[in-house]
Amino acid sequence: MHTNSLAAFLELARQLSQASLVIALQQRAADQVVPLRSEPPLSWQRGTAWSWRVPKELSNEAGALQFLCPADLPSMLTVGLTFTAAKVAYLNCLDFGERAEGGVLFVWNASQAPKAATLSSNPLSQQHLIGLLRPIYARLLDARHLAEETIESGAKFHDIFNSVPQGVVVVSGLGQHAQVNQVASGLLNISAGYVPLNTLAQAMRAARMRCDNAADLESVYQALQHSLNAQVTANWELDECIWRVDTHPVLNDAHNGRVWLFQDVTAQIRLERMLRREASHDPLTGLLNRRAFFDLAQAHYQAQNSQDKVAFDSDTSQDLAVLMFDIDYFKKINDRFGHPVGDKVLREVAHRSQAQLREGDVLARYGGEEFIVLLRQANQASSRAVAERLRLAMQSQPVRVGEKVIQIHISVGLALRRNKKEMLASTIERADKNLYLAKREGRNRVVDTID
């Protein structure tokens, strides 16, 4: 393991962890380790073993990073520290590689302790740290076993550098060149290895311009033009993939260089979006569900209360209104034709309703065959007109399912918000009463008479 390879790794480890001190350790026995190098460098006699029992790794990968008591540090380390250790963690690489025996020790002083606390309480950050550093250091340890100290380290480190699943770009402190691994080279469409800095800058900009969210990224990276030490994390939506791009100055000082990390988080982001949609949308119709409607409608009510001129028109004649409607005799449709046909009717009602509403109106499935709409910038006349459009759209043509022809009608209850003090629940209650009255008066009608 060449000194330069290990030094580059420790710089990366310290940057990612924000630790005050990072030490690469090789394990000789269960209670004996040898320090190989630290960042920043500490003075000790090379090859001197420390008596220290390495923490046992838990059965899962997350357990590879363990937070320890500072009192458990090797005594030969604590006597040489220039600060008091406040937080300590150990990343165990034992048996992770082919012959890897050792790990990485992280030490935070009091001022950096909050960084450790944030890391210890965030499983995703821990997984990111483990997933990036553990395979690299394991391979470095393997390389130490397999090669003599005199082996040219450049090619060895490049192999390790290019084997990690994340894209990595390391910009030199002098700002003349950058080192690009294989994943990053494919993403940025440039050669792997050492590239001139202007070539990297052009490739970075070209890749960002190809992103679906290029305009957003342009403003995000303005921070780098104003501060060389800026730390920026952003998602690049590029070629149907989502890359989480992290960039930080090495050791918090751009004069030491800058690291760019590219991680493919497409599956994670898509899963998060799917879960959010499932939590807020009705699976049958694709409309907002009842809970999501309340959250969104309540936000509009509160915004209007504060006279938010961005969200609402300043004309005092324009207010909020609630429409509630359901399908007349829907139970008979289900009983006669079956639930699959009933589901088709519900989807068709949702589709026709969306076609009649304006941009900004909020439509949701309230439950069963009942739907609810929040009308923005509404008055009595315009709200009544929307309700009538909905009613006519339903009866204009039947729903056809195979050879079955189902004529549908709806009853609508309408309530305009009385004043800016009225709560959402009160408006909904009045709309519901009007819906009940519409059904009692014969169905297939709009009622807005309840004060």
Describe the fold and architecture.
- The protein is of the alpha+beta class and 451 residues long.
- The protein has 3 domains: 149 residues, no CATH class; 105 residues, Beta-Lactamase (2-Layer Sandwich); 161 residues, Reverse transcriptase/Diguanylate cyclase domain (Alpha-Beta Plaits, 2-Layer Sandwich).
- The protein has a 6-stranded antiparallel beta sheet with strand order 3-2-1-6-5-4.
- Strand 7 and strand 8 form a beta hairpin.
- Helix 1 packs antiparallel against helix 4, helix 4 runs antiparallel to helix 5 and helix 13 packs across helix 14.
- It is elongated, with a radius of gyration of 32 Å.
- This is diguanylate cyclase.
- Its EC number is 2.7.7.65.
- It is an enzyme of class 2 (transferase).
Brief overview, please?
By secondary structure, the protein is of the alpha+beta class. It has helices at 3-17, 75-78, 113-120, 123-146, 153-163, 182-188, 197-210, 214-220, 222-226, 266-280, 290-305, 330-337, 339-356, 380-395, 424-440, and strands spanning 21-29, 32-39, 50-51, 65-68, 87-92, 102-108, 167-171, 177-180, 193-196, 232-238, 241-249, 258-264, 319-327, 362-367, 370-378, 399-401, 404-406, 410-416, 446-447.
